[in-house]
Hints:
The chain is mostly helical. It has one domain (7-156). It has helices at 7-32, 34-60, 72-85, 102-119, 126-143, 146-156; strands at residues 90-93, 96-101. A two-stranded antiparallel ribbon has the order 1-2. A hairpin with a 2-residue loop joins strand 1 and strand 2 (96-101).
Amino acid sequence: xxxxxxxxxxxxxxxxxxxxxxxxxxxxxxxxxxxxxxxxxxxxxxxxxxxxxxxxxxxxxxxxxxxxxxxxxxxxxxxxxxxxxxxxxxxxxxxxxxxxxxxxxxxxxxxxxxxxxxxxxxxxxxxxxxxxxxxxxxxxxxxxxxxxxxxxxxxxx
Length: 157
């Protein structure tokens, strides 16, 4: 989680972490208070990164040529916690700057990651992104279960 392949990899991860992490931290601070927000954020980031590593490890532990590095899984946990906590915020990709509501962006992003994982090309650990996202979602549901029903209502209304 603390090593990156190149500067672009590091910058993209930190850019995402800075902007969505800031939104999530402010949301946590407003809801839980600043001290608890710090604890929740640290748990989310570090355990999200660890959990995100389980999927690539399970799939590749016998492959001596496989390597994986970066904070993408941990960042993905923060991104998806922010999406679940603030589903109406607008999100866009750097290379596709069309803002859409987070409750639409999140499922589309997970679908993209799933199909990219199935395709199996490139040097991106799509399974780590999915694992981090799942951890972020589950963590938010554990600390505030109502966020799940709010999210589902937005999708189906």
